[in-house]
Specification:
The strands form two sheets. Strands 2-1-3-4-5-11 form a six-stranded parallel sheet, with helices on both faces. Strand 8 (about 240-245), helix 11 (about 245-260) and strand 9 (about 270) form a beta-alpha-beta unit. Helix 2 crosses helix 3 (about 30-45), helix 8 packs across helix 9 and helix 10 packs across helix 11. Mean pLDDT is about 90; it is low at about 335-338. With about 350 residues, the chain is of the alpha/beta class. The chain contains twelve helices and twelve strands.
Length: about 350
């Protein structure tokens, strides 16, 4: 098994430089960092977790970097993470990325400098080299909700494929045929997954999803408003707008009302990510609910296992459709048991 000295020799740097790279220290040059990571990959080096625990005392503190603290879904996720962490004897420091990769990386560096015991991250995008460095450096890390393909850490997430299929079948059953989607950022796994699930569900019912009915959003309300304004300006507007997160759905609702249109009489609306507000809108919004509390608990437990030297498995939980009145028809479930 390769040692840290072997990595230093292969990369032609000092052992101290290797250590700084593996701990994501910002003082290392990009050229040295690239050589060290190449050597780590070539030699198959992995830090010894037992030796690492002997060198560094645990702080009983976890870091949580979430994509957007203003998004009620992530606010609720953070609440349940803190609750489960406290039950296991940990404190939590939260960093808000505000859907900005550079701010995400700033929080991660700061948390590592504070010697947190492990990281929970919902990545703001799929291309951060720092995330790969952290994983290779041996910091216990778990992805929650979103993940980055190719980085070998546990992932705790919800699978919305079945719920999206149920939504499309529900809309089809109500007689809707022109369905549009406001997609999330293509750089995120959830952005891609939700639009593909929607496309596949429509294809299964013989429905097409033309490019004009795909709006590009960024999981923020303003992008939902812009995409919906474009839909409504089409010669043949869609009968339904499905927003791939709750904030974009609220933006869509603003655009619909600004036109003097009514939901669902003039156009139907549905959302991914149920939030408590949706039962109070007029009409209440049909949404896909993620098991937020269960995701948070599973993520904290997985991270705790990593910190203690165990090897947790990734966890995938099903999302579910909550039918209300925003698409027409009668509501079958006014609440989500999140």
């Amino acid at each position: 098994m390769a040692s840290i000295k072997d990595v230093a020799a292969e990369a032609r740097v000092s052992v101290a430089t290797v250590s700084r790279v593996l701990n994501s220290h910002p003082s290392v040059s990009e050229e040295a960092r690239t050589r060290v990571l190449a050597a780590v990959e070539a030699l198959g080096y992995r830090p010894n977790a037992v030796a690492r625990s002997l060198r560094t005392a645990q702080t009983r503190t976890l870091g949580l970097v979430i994509s957007d603290v203003l998004n009620p879904y992530f606010t609720e996720l953070a609440r349940f993470v803190e609750e489960e962490a406290r039950a296991l004897g940990y404190s939590v420091i939260i960093g808000n990325a505000d859907e900005r990769p550079e701010l995400q990386d700033h929080h991660i560096r700061t948390l590592i400098d504070r010697r947190i015991d492990g990281l929970l991250v919902s990545p703001a995008d799929g291309g951060s080299p720092l995330m790969r460095d952290v994983a290779l450096g041996g910091t216990p890390m778990v992805f929650v909700d979103r993940w980055i393909p190719g980085i070998d850490v546990p992932v705790v997430r919800a699978d919305g494929t079945g719920a999206v299929k149920d939504l499309v079948a529900h809309l089809h059953g109500l007689g809707h045929r022109r369905l549009a989607i406001i997609a999330g950022p293509a750089a995120t796994t959830t952005g891609n997954e939700r639009v593909e699930a929607f496309r596949e569900a429509m294809r299964g019912l013989g429905l097409a999803l033309p490019d004009a009915y795909i709006g590009q959003g960024d999981f923020q309300a303003a992008s939902g408003r812009r995409a919906t304004e474009r839909f409504l300006a089409l010669a043949e507007p869609p009968e339904v707008v499905f927003a791939a997160d709750n904030l974009m759905a609220l933006g869509a609702l603003d655009a619909i009302r600004a036109r003097g249109l009514r939901v669902p009489d003039d156009i139907a609306l549905a959302a991914f990510d149920d939030i408590p507000w949706f039962v109070h809108t007029d009409p209440p919004v049909t949404a896909i609910a993620q098991p937020t509390a269960d995701l948070a608990r599973a993520a904290v437990r997985a991270l705790g296992d990593l910190i203690e030297g165990r090897t947790p498995q990734s966890v995938t939980l099903p999302a579910r459709l909550v039918v209300r009145r925003s698409c027409g028809g009668a509501a079958t479930n006014q609440r989500s048991d999140r």
